[in-house]
Amino acid sequence: MRGPIARCALLLIDVQQGFKIMEQEGRSRNNASAEAHIARLLAAFRGVGARVIHVRHASLEPASLFRQGQPGFEAQDFARERAGEPVLLKTVNSAFIGTGLEERLRTGGIDSLVVAGATTNHCVETTLRMAANLGFNAQLVSDASWTFDLVGVHGESYPAELVHALSLANVHGEFGEVVTTAQVLAALAVAQDA
Description:
Largest sheet: 6 strands, parallel
CATH architecture: 3-Layer(aba) Sandwich
Helix content: 25-40%
Strand order of the largest sheet: 3-2-1-4-5-8
Low-confidence stretches: none
């Protein structure tokens, strides 16, 4: 977290039931404790009165787990919004496309984002890259995001932990800063005392 609490928001990307369903269907992922870290971040941001913005993927694909009206579209229970916390719906990878997110941030005086959620190499990384391109300070919380094993263009298999690590390497220093939950919580405590 950078700067005053009033200028920072926690941006939760696609913390939806569809990813739990994918796991139940046998998809292998990394960062099994990501949801617990997200819950800690949520509690901390809410505790100091900092802003929380929820983003959900609303797929346009008829058979998608993430299509509105499907059980996979719903937020995971621990990450449900509270009164006053906006929920933005996106249909593409970036939370900035078609959601009004940029205008909401600028109107609200927010210039710093703490980003967590799923999946690291898709919507989280895409959103972080675009945030940086739009001039926002962005931090990706490495232990509060996760991804799944990936099949390459020639059928090769890439484990989720490698995919996650490469995604972090892609953004760190170029499009934002990679941090841990503990670092964000410590920064929040310092900002609250300032």
